[in-house]
Amino acid sequence: MSRRCELSGKAVQWGNSVSHANNKTRRQFYPNLNQVSLISDALKQTVHLRVSSHALRSVEVRGGLDAYLLKARDGELSARALKLKRQIAKKTAAAAAS
Predict the structure, then answer these.
(1) % helix, strand, coil for the chain, step of 5
(2) What does the alpha-carbon distance between residue 57 and residue 78 come to, in Å, rounded to a whole number?
(3) What are 30-77's pLDDT values in tens digits?
(4) pTM of the model
(5) Is 85 helix (H, G, I), strand (E, B) or coil?
(6) Which of 7, 10, 17, 35 could form a disulfide with 55 if both were Cys (CB 3.0 to 4.6 A apart)?
(7) Which CATH number fits domain 13-97: 2.30.170.40, 1.10.357.10, 3.40.50.360, 3.20.20.140?
(8) Is 66 exposed, middle or buried (0-12, 13-18, 19+ CB in 10 A)?
């Protein structure tokens, strides 16, 4: 399983650990990923995603999973999230048309 957020695209970053003596050793900075269940109002189902804490807060601020996915750029979403976005867009378009 990759260490990448499925919604925001946050991934592992690399940098240096710098000691008091200014010695530099390479290290990795991992995103704070959590396995969460989010509810999609348009699809009327729960979705299990691996999401960073930052993205989870953004989902809450934007007003839920549906609103977050519809505003998110396609490049930062995972394949599963992109598929969800398309399903949600189709459902909302069908609901608006009827």
Answers:
(1) 40, 30, 30
(2) 18
(3) 999 999 999 999 999 999 999 999 999 999 999 999 999 999 999 999
(4) 0.86
(5) helix
(6) 7
(7) 2.30.170.40
(8) buried
